[in-house]
Structures are given as C-alpha cells and as structure tokens.
C-alpha cells in the first residue's frame, strides 16, 4: 500500500502517520500546507523512516496535487487536511470555505485525474477516504437519540457546514464518476499532540500555569470522546477494509458534559502533577486558589453552540470488527501524563517556535 495522507502534520493526521509507520508496511506520504495547526514536531518518531515522506502543499493548488499524485503514485488517499476549530470558523469562515470545500473539491478532481489513468485493476483497488465529523449531523438537544449513518445533515457552525459540504462532494464523486470513496464521521478526539486551542489541552496547560479554566455557558454541552489512537486505528481499518460508497460513524461510547471533562482533568492534575510543576503547587496564587477546580470560570456561551452530540458506532463494530481500546478513564489519564511528560512539545507550540521547524529535511515541494 502507498497511502497519501493530507493533513498529516495535524493532530489526528499525525496519529495516523505514526500508526501506519509503526504497525504496517505501508509507504506513507504526508501532504500538508503547515498552517498554524500543522506541526512537524509531532512526527519526529517517523521522520527518519524510509517509508515516510513529506510534501508541503496546499490542497487548493491543483498543479501541486497533480505533481504529488504523479510522484508518489498512491493506492489510497486519506483526506484529513482541514481547518478544524469551530471558534475560528465563527470569527473568520473564509479559510474554512477555501480549504474544507474548495480544497476537498480540488483534491477529488486531482484524485480523479490520476485514477482515470490507472489500469482497471488498479482503479478498483484505489480508495479515497474522506475523514469527517459527527458535527455535520447537528444537535441532539432534548432527545436520547444517537447519530447514525442515515441521520439527516443539519450543521450549525461554519466549520460543520463546510465539512457537511465536503462530505456531499465526496459522495457525489463516487455516485457520478465512480471514484471509489469512503466517508467516516467521528466524535471529539483527544490525546497526545493535540493543539492547545482545543478544550482538553487548553485546560491542562492553563491549569498548569495557574490560569483560569474558561467553560462555555454552564458547561452542560455533551460530547462523545474518542482517544486519538483508537480513531487512527479505525481510519486505517476503514481505508483498507471498508465498503466503497459507505459511510461509517466512529465514536467512543463516552458521552460527557464539558464541565465533567474539565473537573476530571482538575482531579487528575491534582493527583498526577508533581509538586512544583505549576503556579498552584508553588503557592504562587494570591487568590486563595488551592485546587485546580477553583480555576474554573464560566464564560459567555459560543453562538450557535450545539448542546448534545452522541454517536452510534455499531456499524463499524459489526462490519469491520473495530472497537475502541481506551475507555475515557484510561485515555484521559494517558493524555494528562503525556502533557506532563512532554513540556518541550507544547512549550514550543505556545511560544510559536514549532513553526521554525516547518521546512524539515524531508520537504519535497
Ligand atoms: P488539525 O487542525 O489538528 O490538523 C489539520 C491539518 O491540516 C494541519 O496539519 C494543517 O496544516 C493541515 N491543513 C489545513 N489546511 C490545509 C490546506 N489548505 N492544505 C493542506 N493542508 C492543510 O485537525 P485534526 O483535529 O487533526 O482533524 C483532522 C480531520 O479530522 C479534519 O478533517 C477534521 O474535520 C476531522 N475530525 C476531527 C475531529 C477532532 O476531534 N479533532 C473529530 C472528527 C473529525
């Protein structure tokens, strides 16, 4: 297998690259623009592998994509490149429309041009796997329902609307042109190498520096959480064994209120952070803060904030025999430990120094 991964320097993409290099014999190419969310320092464990290569490119650049397809000759494309942060999509939707919609269209067309020149045997073995979110299904407020693969789309934010658009494009390219595509829609991921703007790393790092822990509204929003390595395994399972034209929901069976997640992090840090590792432990606080929980502050809710997402992941379990290995309790503990053990990674993200390494030795375009 020769797997071209877009967005491989991001949080989930880098987990997929690490998983493929460690556990398969596939050749892996990482195609990434290296936006603020792309970090080659998440890939130091694989960068010397002869089976790994990196192309710096933008998925809206058709010419660059044609060159990469011709050079790498993939058997599979796993498309993760996206603008992914809901708050940023509210402040400035333009990049979300450009990358998530126009970029997915441009990538589909490049894949189709490449695919149309393959032998019929190679054509039927080729896969284009589009990685998407459960946020396309909208809000389950006030119900006990779960999102299934046939739930109607009802996205609420510019981010989820742009991902919904890209899902529709991928489905249409399969129906109209016969490109062998697959789609997965997954719930919230968490784990190592997560960019600190997202809920869990943001809270861990704020807590460690004695900063307030801002919780939107009353913190009652419910999300399903999946450990990122479980997602990476699910994605490779679908890309290699899924049925063409099908959609698979992926989730962790871990519905939690946001406030519950933040409180869990506070408890774990209280137990796990070594004395002296943070402002609180050093007694630096002047506001009588003695427990990380005391840092929780409630802030004005995000506009259009969905109240509840919950996913039915029984199809991937039934058809492809995938189940998550981590419970929320084990996964969140591993995550906190990883942030405690790897300050050099997140300190370079917080300082912006990670961007200095963006033209690594393996850059090919
Ligand atoms: P991320 O923001 O951490 O990484 C995105 C990567 O895409 C970055 O490396 C960035 O440099 C790259 N990128 C952005 N624009 C690009 C462009 N125009 N051309 C090439 N590369 C570009 O995102 P993530 O959290 O790893 O999410 C990956 C995918 O999974 C996204 O498609 C997202 O919608 C989906 N997803 C994420 C979650 C989650 O909880 N994070 C859940 C379900 C689905």
TrEMBL record:
Assigned keywords, A-Z: Lyase, NAD
Pfam families (UniProt xref): GDP_Man_Dehyd (PF16363)
Top EC category: lyase
InterPro entries attached to this UniProt entry: dTDP_Gluc_deHydtase, NAD(P)-bd_dom, NAD(P)-bd_dom_sf
CDD domains in alphabetical order: dTDP_GD_SDR_e
Membrane-spanning parts: none
Family: Belongs to the NAD(P)-dependent epimerase/dehydratase family. dTDP-glucose dehydratase subfamily.
UniProt-recorded name of the protein: dTDP-glucose 4,6-dehydratase
Originating organism: Marinobacterium marinum
């Amino acid at each position: 297998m020769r797997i071209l991964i877009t967005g491989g320097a991001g949080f989930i993409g880098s987990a997929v690259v690490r998983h493929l290099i460690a556990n398969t014999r596939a050749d892996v190419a990482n195609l990434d623009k290296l936006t603020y969310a792309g970090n080659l320092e998440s890939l130091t464990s694989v960068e010397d592998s002869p089976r790994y290569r990196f192309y710096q490119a933008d998925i809206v650049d058709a010419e660059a994509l044609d060159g990469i397809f011709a050079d790498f000759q993939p058997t599979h494309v796993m498309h993760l490149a996206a603008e992914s942060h809901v708050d940023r999509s509210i402040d400035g939707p333009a990049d979300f429309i450009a990358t998530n919609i126009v970029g997915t269209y441009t990538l589909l067309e490049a894949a189709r041009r490449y695919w149309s020149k393959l032998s019929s045997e190679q054509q039927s073995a080729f896969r284009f796997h589009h990685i998407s979110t459960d946020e396309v299904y909208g809000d389950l407020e006030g119900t006990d329902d779960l999102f299934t693969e046939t739930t109607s789309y009802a996205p609420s934010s510019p981010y989820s609307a742009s991902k919904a658009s890209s899902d529709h494009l991928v489905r249409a390219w399969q129906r109209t042109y016969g490109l062998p595509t697959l789609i997965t829609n997954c719930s919230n991921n968490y784990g190592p190498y997560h960019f600190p703007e997202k809920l869990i790393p943001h809270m861990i790092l704020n807590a460690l520096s004695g900063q307030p822990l801002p919780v939107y509204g009353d913190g009652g929003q419910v999300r399903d959480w999946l450990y990122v390595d479980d997602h990476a395994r699910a994605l490779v399972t679908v890309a290699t064994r899924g049925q063409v034209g099908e959609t698979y929901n992926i989730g962790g069976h871990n519905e939690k209120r946001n406030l519950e997640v933040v409180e869990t992090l506070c408890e774990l840090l209280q137990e796990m952070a070594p004395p002296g590792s943070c402002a609180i432990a050093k007694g630096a606080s002047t506001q009588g803060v003695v427990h990380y929980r005391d840092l929780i502050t409630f802030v004005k809710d995000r506009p259009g904030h969905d109240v509840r997402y919950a996913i039915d992941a029984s199809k991937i379990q039934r058809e492809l025999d995938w189940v998550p290995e981590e419970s929320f309790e084990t996964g969140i503990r591993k995550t906190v430990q990883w942030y405690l053990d790897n300050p050099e990674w997140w300190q370079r993200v917080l300082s912006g120094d990670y961007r200095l390494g963006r033209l690594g030795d393996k850059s090919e375009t």
